């Protein structure tokens, strides 16, 4: 079966990094580009981090397209307290050898979509994808499907209502949710079923690879933040769920939904209303409902073990 042509729209971000490294090691995917967006940190840093991750994995073949610096709905906030000031756990990095394309994210996605059917995995705020729809509405004819990490069926993680990727740019999310394309949403209630623990960090370190070492190092502050915040060191693999869905579409149980975003409201801004009523069973928008973490972690470990080891 031909590999799925994929662009990952991202705001790396520590969990973005795991998702990206997983995608790059998965033969089911042909990762054409990383397009970057403001989110966990500003777009200058998310773009540098995309270059760092492609240099780390030796993937000079993958393009980097810089995207939007400001949410459509106006400046909001970052998640530097979770991901570090640089967005990747504040490790020291040498200057990346992978550069940035002169083409911006939106034009890169549009060009590559017109060449052949394309899947988009959006694991940051949806500003780039909304801008793509506004600038090139015909793009939907060339997109096989969009898989996003975002939203929450119940409680948010920035406010009680809003999950971070939606909270940063609710206006963009509303545009993407209303788009005439197939959309699969991996919300917090799904992603919290997928997590790594300290045994997995030890596994990464025992790979004796640059990739394993770097991921373990950047995940450590992520675990410390989670311990301070919720009292355990679970490493929630939010963004990897969007990639896992593209790698193996049968792994995550999904339901048809009607999906809407609250852009008004004071307390509810950024809330996602995901109606799973039977009326929406055949909707072209689906929500991830259930995932087996053991199967996910097994695949993740296998894929990360394919990176070159020093021994
Ligand atoms: O709410 C989780 C999302 O917000 C993930 O994409 C993570 O990277 C953070 O940006
Ligand atoms: Ca992210």
Task: Report what the structure shows.
By secondary structure, the chain is an alpha/beta fold. It has helices spanning 14-24, 43-56, 80-83, 105-115, 127-135, 164-168, 170-177, 188-191, 198-206, 210-230, 238-247, 293-304; strands spanning 4-10, 29-36, 63-66, 118-122, 143-149, 183-186, 195-196, 235-236, 253-256, 258-261, 272-275, 285-290. It has an eight-stranded mixed beta sheet with strand order 3-2-1-4-5-6-12-9, sandwiched between helices. Helix 1 (14-24) runs antiparallel to helix 10 (210-230), helix 1 packs parallel to helix 11 and helix 4 packs across helix 5 (127-135). Calcium ion (CA) binds next to loops.
Which features characterize this protein?
311 residues; alpha/beta; two-stranded antiparallel sheet; 12 helices; 12 strands; globular; binds alpha-D-ribofuranose; binds calcium ion
């Amino acid at each position: 079966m031909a590999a799925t042509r994929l662009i990952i729209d991202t705001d790396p971000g520590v969990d973005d990094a795991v998702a990206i490294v997983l995608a790059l090691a998965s033969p089911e995917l042909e990762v054409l580009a990383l397009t970057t967006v403001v989110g966990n940190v500003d777009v200058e840093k998310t773009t540098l981090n995309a270059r760092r991750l492609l240099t780390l994995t030796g993937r000079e073949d993958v393009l980097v397209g810089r995207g939007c610096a400001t949410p459509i709905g106006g400046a909001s906030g970052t998640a530097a307290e979770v991901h570090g000031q640089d967005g990747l756990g504040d490790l020291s990095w040498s200057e990346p050898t992978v550069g940035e394309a002169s083409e911006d994210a939106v034009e890169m996605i549009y060009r590559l979509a017109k060449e052949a059917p394309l899947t988009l995995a959006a694991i940051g705020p949806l500003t780039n994808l909304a801008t793509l729809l506004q600038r090139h509405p015909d793009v939907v004819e060339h997109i096989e499907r969009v898989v996003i990490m975002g939203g929450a069926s119940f409680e948010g993680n920035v406010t009680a209502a809003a999950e971070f990727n939606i909270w940063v740019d609710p206006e963009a999310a509303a545009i993407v949710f209303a788009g005439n394309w197939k959309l699969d949403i991996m919300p917090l209630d799904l992603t919290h079923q997928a997590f790594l623990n300290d045994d997995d960090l030890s596994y990464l370190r025992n790979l004796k690879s640059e990739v394993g070492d770097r991921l373990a190092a950047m995940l450590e502050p992520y675990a410390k933040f989670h311990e301070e915040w919720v009292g355990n060191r679970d490493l929630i693999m939010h963004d990897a769920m969007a990639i896992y869905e593209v790698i193996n579409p049968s792994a995550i149980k999904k339901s048809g939904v009607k999906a809407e975003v609250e852009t008004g409201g004071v307390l509810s801004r950024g809330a996602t209303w995901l109606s799973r009523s039977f009326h929406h069973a055949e909707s072209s928008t689906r929500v991830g409902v259930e995932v087996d973490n053991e199967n996910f972690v097994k695949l993740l470990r296998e894929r990360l073990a394919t990176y070159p080891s020093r021994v």
